[in-house]
Amino acid sequence: MASRVVKRAYKYRFYPTSEQADQLARTFGCVRYVYNRALAERSRAWTCEQRRINYVDTSRMLTGWKRDQETSWLTEPSKGPLQVALQHLQGAFDMFWRKRAAYPRFKRKGKSKDSATYFSNCFTFRDGQIRLAKQAEPLDIHWSRPLPCGAVPSQVTVSKDSAGRYHIAILVEETMPSLAASSRTVGVDAGITSLYAFSTGEKVPNPRYEKKDRARLARAQRVFARKGKGSANRAKARVKVARIHARIADRRRDHLHKLSTRLVRENQVIAIEDLSVRNMVRNRRLARAISDASWSQFRSMLEYKAEWYGRTVVAVDRFYPSSKTCSECGRINDAMPLQLRQWTCVCGVSHDRDVNAAKNIRAAGLAVLACGDGVRPSRG
Q: Could you list the active site residues?
């Protein structure tokens, strides 16, 4: 089995001292300021002069901002996170020009997660401890799992979420052994009643983590709404709401990680639907349930884990009528109401709606791999 070297991030909680927390808060603020000011300059240059500004131009601007007396405080944090902020802005514009993302937006304090990325010249890693630039003491990291043996971090990203938790993501190169080749293939149909149905007939129940904590979340939000704006009690209530959201997200992410790892280990080819979740959540009746299912996050996990271990994930056209098609005879029904969970084809075969769709997705995915073309039926 051939192995491959991949870049992998290991994420840990850490607990900064009061001095470190103050220094990180200033760094987060400087990163946010540099990103927003560079975005404003790029927008102004295009609107007023029809001129594009790239990363090199904004890097020169950053040097000038540091020399300006009004913004001389930009020299306090390490230069690395500020340069990375400009690189992230350049990446956001690249995605926008490719029409793969919306126009970059300004970062607002308290509305977006604070983060700062340090390259290898802006931190030290020695004796299992990490010390950031311009900090005297190493970070108090709780090593929930060890780093790969002999791994040397190439960059670290420190962040603080809305619940007040600090995390550090350590990027290292790791040799990932490819799994033994398998003859098994599986089709995956996403749903709400059942989170996922497989072509093998198995159904994964939907844990509905948001629904389980909905009452607690509603109470905390009511308490938060009653607090006076700008008060210390409002800030405390906001943290309580954020912690409930974090608990829901953590449990959901843990469940999806376990499920995606299992699928990648057991199957050589995994066929999924190319769903447009952004359009689907516009349905007000199903938006909350679709968001809680987190189909996009699950697909992302499948794709990067499949790349690690030498597996294949193939996406089937979202307009392929997987639910309407009989997996036995191939007949396509004219209509298939959402509330119809069991149906019988004219060929006499009874189908579970989700499992039948998963079987069709598997067959379509294998056809895409074999022919390299879409599987949407002709209009005729």
A: 189, 273, 354
